[in-house]
Amino acid sequence: MKKSIAALTASLLLLATGCQEEIAAQPDLTLEQKPETKILVTLGDSISAGYGLDAPETQRYSAFLTEMLHAHDENDWRDCNYAVSGDDCSDLLQRLYDGKAIRLPAADEIVIYIGANNLLFPYKTYIQNILSENSTPESQTAAKKTLDLEIDKGLNRLEADLDTMYQWIRERNTVDEAPIYLLNIYNPYADLTDETLPSSDVLMREYAEEQITRCNQVLSDFAAAHDDIHLVDIAEPFAQCGEAPILGEIEPRNIWTIDPHPNTEGQKIIAETIFSAIKEYRNETSL
Fold first, then answer.
1. pTM given for the model
2. pLDDT band at residue 13 under the 50/70/90 scheme
3. Is the pLDDT of residue 21 over 60?
4. Among 3, 168, 191, 270, which is disulfide-ready with 61 (CB 3.0 to 4.6 Å)?
5. Ordered domains of the chain (ranges, CATH)
6. How does pLDDT run across 155-179, given as a tens digit for each residue?
7. Confidence (pLDDT) at 270
8. What would the 3-class secondary structure string for the chain be?
């Protein structure tokens, strides 16, 4: 009996070995590899949300970027866009605290565009003050000083909130320190030719350029201090356009009628610029 059992065991082992060799010799039987699901998380304000576009879900830069990423690496990229119109840096930080960016822990690429409203909100208040029925030359001068002071505070707050934001993301993101792409701010008023700040001899385009340059320096310095944050310069390609690719094309063009948000072409420019930065980073890390 023992001999028979041993013989039967040997026969089964030989049969199993033979089956394994046969399967190994037939690659047609292996399962086809499916594309991996990847997550792009976008944080920001109305520019990232696609404000003013006919179809934001397909025309904002994050939608174009996921298409580019899919075509490049054939993975299944998901556009997880948590940008909210009107947010400044502190609003965005609060949304993170509130758990609104639910896919952030699993993000493979993270894009952040924030800071424009830190400049725009003080300017809106300034405009309201000088257009008031009770406005006087003295109150307008005071309003301009307040504008400068509030922009200073906004930029200081941006610097502090970026640091807190970065720490919050790094503590929760689990994808081996997914790279963060931090966008700088473009100037939508660069091609204005004759509009000045109300009650001031300063050209609006010059004032905007000065303050946006300051904001971009904050963003640049912050990115330079962290190896896993990559500054994406979208200000330069916007500046190279003959006319800023924005929605505000109302005549006569001036600060009161221009909508500074990107049009579809502007959104594509942003997506292409980010995509170039991602490809450059991937090439560097693969060396």
1. 0.84
2. very low
3. no
4. 270
5. 33-286 (3.40.50.1110)
6. 999 999 999 999 999 999 998 779 9
7. 98
8. CHHHHHHHHHHHHHHHHHHHHHHHCCHHHCCCCCCCEEEEEEEECHHHHCCCCCCHHHHCHHHHHHHHHHHHHCCEEEEEECCCCCCCHHHHHHHHHCCCCCCHHHCCEEEEECCHHHHHHHHHHHHHHHCCCCCCHHHHHHHHHHHHHHHHHHHHHHHHHHHHHHHHHHHHCCCCCCCEEEECCCCCCCCCCCCECCCCCCEHHHHHHHHHHHHHHHHHHHHHCCCCEEEECCHHHHHHCCCCCECCCCCCCCCCCCCCCECHHHHHHHHHHHHHHHHHHHHHHHC
Tell me which of 216 and 35 has the higher pLDDT. 216
Q: Residue 269 has what pLDDT? A: 98
